[in-house]
Design goal:
The strands form 2 sheets. Strands 1, 2, 3, 4, 5, 6, 7, 8, 9 and 19 form a 10-stranded mixed beta sheet that branches. Strands 10, 11, 12, 13, 14, 15, 16, 17 and 18 form a 9-stranded mixed beta sheet that branches. The longest helix has 14 residues, at about 95-110. With about 400 residues, the chain is an alpha+beta fold. The protein is built from 7 helices and 19 strands. Helix 2 (about 95-110) packs across helix 3 (about 115-130). A hairpin with a 4-residue loop joins strand 2 and strand 3. The structure holds 2-OXO-4-methylpentanoic acid (COI).
Length: about 400
């Protein structure tokens, strides 16, 4: 009978920690391990007319009923964002509106309550400002931000959760992979799939990640770093069974190939419902297009070299034939956490495809390096590109 009260940033209550934690040196940081002093929390309860007043309070455990639906049926969604320090000492976020939009979409997919994206972004900016001293300034380091929504309904019946908790925690971080920026190896598998048509792979749900843990352990036992996720398909020309490439570990995937006219093709799988619409994925496509249109110049890439972007299916057999013809220049994963991870080899059906990257520091090829450097310069406010870098004020 009433409109639920919206998420209202103007109702923010701030309870600062009495004691602040010492900040560890950046070199000692392990991705996701250390948390900042504060967190943001807000509850949704239909009996209390919707969203409560948001609160910034000292970081600490949540107290939830053991029957909570997030623990039983997994209505859990999250985002990954990063904050950087800009040239004037200001805190900056990278294309944060995209994370807010995706969080709303993810929440809707598991019937969690909706919220006002602008209000949540304003609250995240406040939280980042409160814990600004935690943003590392060392190149390659940033403050990882994890907005999360969990269903808190305490009835064990299988039904959507009509109550929820939204919280945001933050973690100062360096390189995502423990060996830093180095080329990774992938094991392509087809007996386990990350996502499927009609499934939830295009949403950022906690439940998409746990099924990857066991295949990941198997890949490591076989000497590879990450999984290359495939999905059964039919070859376009031969109509025989084939497998299309979907994602690398928890990242979107890009392939750089040589064209007969001397230009380059930069290809990533299309957003067909099985691919997570990554912010770094879209930024990679946008920046390559901007380079080709002459709007920006990629570092150490000839301005006349055109990079043609494609959102197109890549099958593993096509990749193998491009590789055997020597046309694969680079293969890399992109995501918020790692930004860009160069791939050195892919194991498939007992054979390793080894790519020509690895000559340069970090195993980066020319395009991967240019994209990584350009995105980082925009994130840290050194390079202005559209309104991608947003100041927290
Ligand atoms: C990301 O790159 O942002 C990811 O999704 C990986 C992860 C830490 C969940």
């Amino acid at each position: 009978f009433f409109e639920p009260s919206p998420l209202d940033a103007s109702k923010l209550v701030v309870n600062l920690a009495k004691e602040l934690k010492p900040i560890p040196p950046p070199e000692s940081l392990v991705f996701g391990e250390t948390k900042t002093d504060h967190m943001l929390i807000v509850h949704y309860d239909p009996a209390k007319n919707g969203w409560s007043a948001p609160e910034i309070k000292p970081y600490g455990p949540l107290s939830i009923d053991p029957a909570s639906s997030c623990l039983q049926y997994c209505p859990n969604v999250f985002e990954g964002m990063k904050a950087y320090i800009g040239p004037q000492g200001e805190a900056r976020l990278f294309r944060p509106q995209m994370n807010m939009e995706r969080l709303v979409r993810s929440a809707a997919r598991v019937a969690l309550p909706n919220f006002d994206e602008t209000a949540l972004l304003a609250l995240i900016k406040c939280l980042v400002t409160v814990d600004k001293r935690w943003i590392p300034t060392k190149p390659g380091y940033s403050l990882y931000i994890r907005p999360t929504i969990i269903g808190t309904r305490t009835n064990l019946g299988v039904r959507f959760s009509d109550s929820a908790t939204l919280y945001v925690i933050m973690s100062p971080s360096g390189p995502y992979f423990k060996n830093g920026l180095h080329p990774i190896s992938l094991l392509a598998i087809s007996d386990a799939v990350r996502a499927w048509p009609g499934g939830t792979g295009s949403h950022k749900l906690g439940l998409n990640y746990a099924p990857a843990f066991l295949p990941q352990i198997d890949a490591i036992k076989k000497g590879y770093d990450q999984i290359l996720w495939l999905l059964e398909t039919e070859s376009e020309d031969t109509k025989k069974k084939d497998y299309r490439i979907t994602e690398v570990g928890a990242m979107n995937v890009f392939l750089v190939t040589k064209r007969d006219d001397g230009d380059l093709d930069l290809t990533t799988p299309p957003l067909d419902g099985t691919i997570l619409p990554g912010v770094t994925r879209l930024s990679t496509l946008n920046l390559a297009d901007a380079h080709t249109r002459g709007e920006i110049c990629f570092p150490n890439v000839p301005p006349t070299l055109k990079i043609h972007t494609h959102e197109k299916r890549i099958t593993i057999s096509h990749l193998r034939s491009l590789w055997s013809e020597g046309k694969v220049l680079e293969f890399f994963g992109v995501g918020t956490a790692a930004i860009l991870a160069p791939v050195q080899k892919i194991g498939w059906e007992g054979e390793d495809m080894v790519f020509p990257e690895g000559q340069e520091k970090g195993g980066l090829g020319m395009i991967g390096k240019a994209i990584l450097e350009t995105i980082t310069s925009i994130q840290t406010g050194q390079l202005k590109f559209k309104d991608w870098s947003v100041i927290c004020s």
